[in-house]
């Protein structure tokens, strides 16, 4: 049995279990399985920085020629600046189009302080 078949079977069993257990199952999962998921995610976050750093160091060491490193570094910084400028422009454009908080009443009248 290949991996995709196993994944689809597990997905189907998960859906069936979720439909059978309902809200009680959600409370159980939140109370007992939730902390395990939190620990797992924190462990993954802990691994990311050393993994990225070591792959960057290995990539730089693999280049060998210092002139290549300068060209690659310049292209990398240029690409980073271009994509950052694009993301900023896209964020501003969506902010102007969507107008987040347009109907929000921020009045403090009637609030007890």
Comma- or semicolon-separated keywords:
113 residues, mainly alpha
Task: Draw up the topology in text.
Elements (H helix, E strand, L loop, with lengths): L2 H61 L2 H33 L15
Can you describe this structure in just a few lines?
The chain has helices at residues 3-63, 66-98.
What is the number of beta strands? 0
Number of helices: 2
Shape: flat
Euclidean distance between termini CA atoms: 64 Å
The helicity comes to over 70%
> What is the chain-wise order of helices and strands?
HH
Radius of gyration: 25 Å
The computed structural class is: mainly alpha
The chain-level mean pLDDT equals 89
Task: Outline the biggest β-sheet.
Answer: none
Per DSSP, what share of the residues sits in E-state strands of 2 or more residues?
A: under 5%
Poorly predicted runs are none
Task: Give an overview of the whole structure.
The protein has 113 residues and is mostly helical. The protein has a domain at 64-98. Helix content is 83%, strand content 0%. The chain has 2 helices and no strands. The protein has helices at residues 3-63, 66-98. The N and C termini lie far apart (64 Å). 0% of the residues are buried. The mean pLDDT is 89.
